[in-house]
């Protein structure tokens, strides 16, 4: 599987939801029926079925109906090495860009605090302000 | 030994409340970039060099404790201040080259902040036999993906 980035997009979307990650974690331990999956999440069966459809579309989970019971199991993806690099790389970049956001807001807070204390101390200096905005 | 190459492109977008020149600074200044340009959470960084100019190089070496060494080696190809950065880079895992990529950062002023669009186009190389990597469980991968999405 994961022959193209569309498949990876579907997988990322499927895992973006905490309830679906919980279902995947449960299924990683072994197959389960839909009602067993629903139990820890206090969700309706129809809500679980909707999540299941997203997981199936992503290729992470398969389900089979036998009589009145639908049993779900993890699809064991034979991830090729290249596919592993690609998904690892993407996860690394998601993490980096979040870190960049944290860094930028920390810098912004520092500037605001500095400007605030200058203004309060009545020593406001336009050169200091310019230096701050360039330096940060 | 079987040789194979897989091409793949992915695009990531973020909106930051900071102005484009602030974001550009974080992408181009070595001390600022050290703060956020990291590998996976458990990695140790052993070397970081940044020569930010067209033709200049960036080297980033690190890896998990006791694990293989990852080496990121980039050359800056195009720089437009506060707007665009393009570099090419390859990744080595120990002595094996695992990918060659083209990375583009686009910065656009939007709602008083910056829209950042990161595009990676890569040739991912395969064909070397490393059973320990292949056997690494699906669960590890899913954990990594999931926590990257929740920002943990």
**Count of helix runs of chain B:** 4
As residue ranges, the low-confidence spans of chain A are 121-136
Strand order of the largest sheet of chain A: 1-3-2
Shape call of chain A: elongated
Q: Kindly state the percentage of residues in helix of chain A.
A: 55-70%
Largest sheet of chain B, if any? Answer: 7 strands, antiparallel
Q: How is the CATH topology of chain B named? A: Alpha-D-Glucose-1,6-Bisphosphate, Chain A, domain 4
Number of E-type strands of chain B: 7
Oligomer: heterodimer
What would you note in describing this structure?
The complex is a heterodimer of chains A (136) and B (152). Chain A is mainly alpha-helical and 136 residues long. Chain A has helices at residues 5-15, 18-28, 34-38, 45-57, 81-120, 126-135, and strands spanning 32-33, 61-66, 69-74. A three-stranded antiparallel sheet of chain A has the order 1-3-2. The two termini of chain A are 45 Å apart. Chain B has a single domain, classed as Alpha-D-Glucose-1,6-Bisphosphate, Chain A, domain 4, CATH 3.30.530.20. Chain B is built from four helices and seven strands. In chain B, α1 (20-28) packs across α2. The longest helix of chain B is centred in the C-terminal third of the chain and has 13 residues, at 138-150. The N and C termini of chain B lie far apart (39 Å). Residues 128-152 of chain B have low confidence and may be disordered.
Quickly describe the structure.
Chain A has 136 residues and is mainly alpha-helical. In chain A, 66% of the residues lie in helices and 10% in strands. Chain A is elongated, with a radius of gyration of 24 Å.
List the defining traits of the structure above.
heterodimer, A: 136 residues, mainly alpha, three-stranded antiparallel β-sheet, disordered C terminus, B: 152 residues, Alpha-D-Glucose-1,6-Bisphosphate, Chain A, domain 4, globular
């Amino acid at each position: 599987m994961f022959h193209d980035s569309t498949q990876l997009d579907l997988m990322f979307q499927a895992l973006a939801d905490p309830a679906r990650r919980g279902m995947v974690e449960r299924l990683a331990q072994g197959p389960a029926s839909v009602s067993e999956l629903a139990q820890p999440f206090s969700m309706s069966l129809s809500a679980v079925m909707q999540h299941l459809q997203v997981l199936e579309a992503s290729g992470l989970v398969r389900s089979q109906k036998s009589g009145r019971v639908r049993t779900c199991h993890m699809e064991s993806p034979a991830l090729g090495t290249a596919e592993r690099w690609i998904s690892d790389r993407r996860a690394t970049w998601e993490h980096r860009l979040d870190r960049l956001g944290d860094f930028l807001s920390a810098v912004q807070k520092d500037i605001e605090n500095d400007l605030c204390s200058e203004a309060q101390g009545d020593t406001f200096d336009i050169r200091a302000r310019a230096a701050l905005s360039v330096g940060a | 030994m079987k040789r194979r190459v897989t091409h793949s492109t992915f695009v990531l977008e973020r909106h930051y409340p900071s102005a484009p020149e602030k974001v550009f600074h974080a992408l181009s200044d070595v001390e600022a970039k050290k703060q956020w340009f990291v590998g996976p959470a458990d990695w140790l960084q052993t070397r970081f060099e940044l020569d930010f100019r067209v033709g200049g190089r960036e080297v980033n070496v690190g890896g998990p404790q006791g694990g293989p060494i990852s080496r990121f080696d980039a050359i800056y190809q195009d720089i437009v201040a506060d707007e665009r950065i393009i570099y090419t880079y390859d990744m080595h895992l120990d002595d094996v080259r695992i990918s060659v990529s083209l990375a583009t950062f686009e910065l656009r002023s939007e709602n008083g902040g910056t829209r950042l669009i990161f595009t990676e186009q890569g040739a991912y190389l395969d064909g070397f036999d490393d059973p320990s990597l292949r056997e690494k469980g699906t669960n590890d991968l899913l954990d990594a993906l999931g926590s990257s999405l929740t920002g943990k």
